[in-house]
Amino acid sequence: MVVRFFDSQVEKFIHSLEHETIAKVLRTIDLLELFGNNLSLPHSRKVGNGLFELRIRGKQEVRIFYTFHKNETILLYGFLKKAQRTPQKEIRYAIQKIKKLT
Q1: Cα–Cα distance, 20 to 5 (Å, whole number)
Q2: 49 — phi, psi (to 5°)?
Q3: Which domain holds residue 49?
Q4: CATH of the domain at 23
Q5: Helix (H, G, I), strand (E, B) or coil at 74
Q6: What is the DSSP string of 22-59?
Q7: Are 74 and 67 spatial neighbours (Cβ–Cβ below 8 Å)?
Q8: How many structural domains are present in the chain?
Q9: How far apart, in whole angstroms, are the C-alpha atoms of residue 89 and residue 69?
Q10: pTM to 2 decimals?
Q11: What's the pLDDT tens digit per position in 57-85?
């Protein structure tokens, strides 16, 4: 399955991470490309409303929201997770980006 970035903001976020974390993110994106919507925990989790999150664990806890659109996987938005629960404002922001796809 083809994986692409919604905008350059996602790429910039990934490049801003530590080198070790970048490698983990790229590996997880490769898994997403290989398994598509069959990718599940611990690498991916459904958030709701067609929104999923890539989960990268390690020194930096990274989450990258994505969705499926026209036979592609679109990486929407990434952030460093600092709290136990995913903040609702981050989810709302990703959902706004999904609405821009249609």
Answers
A1: 21
A2: 55, 40
A3: 2-101
A4: 3.30.2310.20
A5: strand
A6: HHHHHHHHHHHHHHGGG--TTTEEEEETTEEEEEE-SS
A7: yes
A8: 1
A9: 22
A10: 0.94
A11: 999 999 999 999 999 999 999 999 988 88
